[in-house]
Amino acid sequence: MLKSLLIASTLLGSLAASANTVEVAIDLYSKRGEDTQNAKKAADIYTALAADAADTVKKAELLVSKSEALYYFGVRQKSDSAKLKVFNEGLEAGLEASKMLKGDESNKSLRARALYFYGSNIGKWGLAKGGTEPLKLFKSVLKPKMGELISLDESVEEYGVYRILGLAYVKVPGLLGGDKKKGLEMIRRGFENTVVETDDFTVSSNSTTTQYMLFALMKNKEKSEFCSLADEFYAFAESEREVQDEINPKLIPETQAEIEAFLEPKEDTNQEEIVKYYDKKC
């Protein structure tokens, strides 16, 4: 009996170990749109693999993937307390990876990705925390870390650093370091480097970049350009699903979420403000 239990335990352990592979984690994360929990399961696998990784670069890669998966999972949590917990774990993974790669000239882009997901998670952490926390983080953490990212490789995650910094500059009050015009310039840089033109629409390959561009144009009262871009995004949002998926095959769940938020905006969101401005001005 004892021997049978030991054998069963060994087999279960082997099965668990075989399930913790990068390939399984990648597959789970690719199915995050089907079930948000798949992103969390992928993050858990990356956590286990990173703990056992002896190679520094491999460990950093796993931590970056963990940070990415947790960001996706965190955004979709309902309560602020749940968001804080997930984003905190995500930002710690990104920060740890960036520290491990400091000074590694051959892995600048990987370190830039680590800083990107660190910035993404800490930005959302600040919003969930509320109060003056986002303002403090903007000056003391976000600006210097994102500046470091730009010096490494500004192109990672589709020039995502300009989404992070640009939106922050637009939202933070001027007296505390914000600058709506500068924010628009940054987001525009990200937009222009990822623009996709078809016969029916012209948008960024990253729908979040397009949304942020609309928000920044609205806040800068650039009505003509705002209305033009909004019409382009409406055309994209109303195009065939196959066409939408082809614009950015890596971010299909994120693209669909942005389209849904634009067509059916929830109360007290950037999208609701954008749609109301469009209905009034365009």
Overall average pLDDT: 93
Annotation field: number of helices: 15
Please summarize the sheet with the most strands.
2 strands, antiparallel
The number of E-state strands comes to 2
- Low-pLDDT stretches are 1-18
Share in β-strands: under 5%
Query: For the largest beta sheet, what order do the strands appear in spatially?
Result: 1-2
Q: If you had to describe this structure to a student in words, what would you say it looks like?
A:
The chain has 282 residues and is mainly alpha-helical. 76% of the residues lie in helices and 2% in strands. The chain has helices at 2-19, 22-30, 37-52, 56-75, 80-100, 108-129, 133-153, 156-159, 161-171, 180-192, 207-219, 223-237, 241-247, 252-263, 270-281, and strands at residues 195-197, 202-204. Strands 1-2 form a two-stranded antiparallel sheet. β1 (195-197) and β2 (202-204) form a beta hairpin. The radius of gyration is 21 Å and the shape is globular. The model is unreliable at 1-18 (pLDDT under 50).
Short description:
The protein has 282 residues and is mainly alpha-helical. The chain has helices at 2-19, 22-30, 37-52, 56-75, 80-100, 108-129, 133-153, 156-159, 161-171, 180-192, 207-219, 223-237, 241-247, 252-263, 270-281; strands at 195-197, 202-204.
